[in-house]
Amino acid sequence: MTSSLLLQRRVAITACGCVSPLGIGWQATRNALLCGDDCVSLVTSFDTAQCQCKMAGQVNDEQLQPASSRRWHRCSRMLRTALEEARRARPNFHPEICFMATTSGGMSFGEAFFHRRRSRNSSQSAMHIAGYMPMQPIQDALISLDWAPPCRIISNACASGTNALGLAFLAVRSGRYRSVLCGGYDAISQLVFAGFESLKVMTPEKCRPFDALRTGLILGEGAAVFFLEDLEEVLRRGIPILAEIAGYGTASDNHHLTQPHPSGLGVRLAVERALASAHFTPQSIDYINAHGTATLQNDLSEAQALLALLPETPVSSTKAMMGHALGAAGAIEAAFCLHALNGNFLPPNLNFRQGDTPLRVVANTSRPAKIRRILSNSFGFGGANACLALQSL
Amino acid sequence: MSLHVQGIAWVSPIARGIDNLIAVLHQPTKSMDKPPLTLTKQLRLRRSGRISQLALTAVMDALVDANKEPTAQTALIFLSTHGGICHTIRFFESVTAGGTHAGSPIFFPETVYNAPPSYIAAHFGINGMVTSFVGDSAAVGGAICTAEEWISTGLCDQCIIVSAEEIHPLLQDAYHCLRLGPGRFGGAPLSEAAAAILLSYELKGSAIRAHPGAGIKKRSNLLPVLFRILKETAASDVPDMILTSALGREAQTAERTAVAELWPHINTLYAKARLGESFAASSLGAIVIGEALLRLGNMHSVLISLPGGNGQVSAVFLNSGNLSKEGP
User: Fold this and answer.
1) Model pTM?
2) pLDDT, tens digit, for every residue of A203-234?
3) A291 is an active site residue
4) What is the CA radius of gyration of chain A?
5) Considering only A118-122, A209-213, B26-30, which range has the smallest mean pLDDT?
6) Cβ pairs A/B, distance under 8 A
7) A109: helix, strand or coil
8) CA-CA to B58 of 20 to 30 Å: which in A31, A115, B100, B319?
9) Any chain B CB within 8 A of the CB of A382?
10) CA–CA separation, B151 and A73 (whole Å)
């Protein structure tokens, strides 16, 4: 183990591209975070009339890069837009490998194929099938940029985004790779919306993470990408650094397929491992971007774990602003953390009135703060728990 | 230091267990005359999809084969191309029939790609590095590379890689639309299946190395990229056999051309013709077959070609002796 520690490289984020309901691009995202914009809107792409929840955080398609082919899914457009933003900031980056996260990929294409086959309409079926596969959107986006790195697509439910960044971090840290592309993407689809509706975890009103009277989550969508590079090499070449990924922790709580362990066991393990991986003390953390879906069980278990480990650290869930983007959530929220680090402010936890725990929630409005170290949490079905540790330099 | 294959498993209607697998490969005409597949029954799996049952059964078999138990330091990588497609389609059928509000809550949780590894982790008490990759055959190379990265950096001391696929008529329909599959398209019939391997640095079993792979920008790039990857993966070692895994059409043609150019007289086995098409599980199964053949003692090395259908290519090399220091 000692020799492994000695060989560990430090990992820098040199560029970021983000597409979310908050907006497209660095400035739009920053402004929305600072202002605490509520970017949730009525779902119109499928019928939600009889659903408990009728809202979602949705990306404005008019601001996305146009599709290079009619075979492209919306995810491909979101990814291309995010990649273009990152490339503008770091034009000479060439990824040796790519780690991407998604839970549903081109699901709406799969839905379309299902409907067409059932109605015995075979037109465009091949297009829908090709675009439905979860790895196709990132393949499309990469090829459009004339990139062809090996790709590893992670699908660990709602922890996927943080897992992808974590695996990319480990790849650079190990010294095997010097330049790694990572991120996550997911788009609203009827199947997934119906899935969460069926579990009765969606709210009929506002998404209120950590609020005592919270009633459930709202779904979202988007894509975020990051360029990770060997930090010492980047410093030597004078390349600007957005932040450092200092550590990563993951844990499986083995409790239930959809419910977190009520004691917050998995959360606690993931956070402890991230802190250990980064060599951070709990007291040195300035802000926690929580998973905070606003479901009864998740928020309680997460709060219990955070109170046990970091009781004094400000916490917010940005899902109240844009919904839960599932596989993309961890990646998008990491982008929000970059804003917090670079802008020295705490992103707000909207719609918060009163908590049912002593958690120090950043209620409703952003506020300035000296921020150097952040933890970003993501937890998912199957007991998947992941935590990323970031710091500014 | 090389990674070694500690245990292997194959589970499918055609064959379960390594001895049965080898027997089927030798006597394919009897492969269809099989009793129904019996999978592990666990209370946790009572509502699970078949893919989870297949995956857990394969992991159990691989651990028995290895004569090992998972520890707290054991990592788990699950790999699938289509995931829990049966539950996904059943769930969407309930939505289509009744509306967005009417989906069945029994089916939805099983649609997530990481449902199978969550059952495996819960069964064995694994609470560390557990991840799910989505991909086709080339993703197997990525999974093995990930396992090697984790073990070499001390994140775990051994890693289980398991892949499982289930099938559905709509999936068959989909591949027919893509002009892939059996008959005139030159591929193999679909089959549910699961494969599992246990890897560690312990000097037992064949040494294994995987190419991290590469992407394909366009179809015409497939042959030169595959050629390069096969060559780099074998390095200075000359394999005794190639296990091919192409689905059909261009990928198979490219595979045959690349192999003929690199090793014109090499033995080639297209196991899918006997076992059926199970996507990522077939490719991990090819590694199982390779290890099983090496255990027979008639060969020293096997190369598994992994040209995926979604723009990724990889390859894996198995050697019953020591691997050369070269390699990807």
Assistant:
1) 0.96
2) 999 999 999 999 999 999 999 999 999 999 99
3) yes
4) 20
5) B26-30
6) 210
7) helix
8) B319
9) yes
10) 37
